Amino acid sequence: VQLQASGGGLVQAGGSLRLSCAASGRTFRRYVMGWFRRAPGKDREFVASISRSDDSTFYADSVKGRFTISRDNAKNTVYLQMNSLKPEDTAVYYCAARTILHSDFSSWGQGTLVTVSS
Q1: Is the pLDDT of residue 100 over 90?
Q2: What is the mean pLDDT of residues 30-45?
Q3: Cα 113 off chain centre by
């Protein structure tokens, strides 16, 4: 599956952004989808994931209660609604996909930059 992330930008602390990730192909509903991020000088970290049928979500502790992951299988798109943004959320955000047969995410989008100013 090919992934294309969008929606990044510059926002003030406390603001909101919604990231989108469009997937190609007709097998989108077969994939568990995730969002990851890489902050400047840091390793990539998990942000959130969502099951194939949208009934199970997981979040990193650092974003729990502020970020919401969702998906629209009819549109082959996964979203990340980010509220109450903090400067430490500044990073390149990547969407990723994996099948239920694998524990690792194997398909990655190109990333979209989110910058949160204080």
Answers
A1: no
A2: 96
A3: 12
Could you tell me which of 51, 42, 53 has the C-alpha nearest to residue 88?
42
Q: How far apart are CA 37 and CA 57, in angstroms?
A: 17
Cβ-count burial of 114 within 10 angstroms (0-12 exposed, 13-18 middle, 19+ buried)?
buried
Average pLDDT for residues 66-95, to the nearest whole number?
97
Q: What is the enclosing helix (H) or strand (E) of 38?
A: strand 32-38
Gap between the Cα atoms of 107 and 87, Å rounded: 28
Question: Mean pLDDT, to the nearest integer, of 18-27?
Answer: 92
Mean pLDDT (whole number) for 4-12: 97
C-beta of residue 40 within 8 angstroms of C-beta of residue 90: yes
For residue 74, the 8-state DSSP code is: T
3-class DSSP assignment, residue 54 = coil
Q: With H, G, I as helix, E, B as strand and everything else as coil, classify residue 93.
A: strand
pLDDT of 32 above 90: yes
CA–CA dist 59, 35 (Å, integer): 9
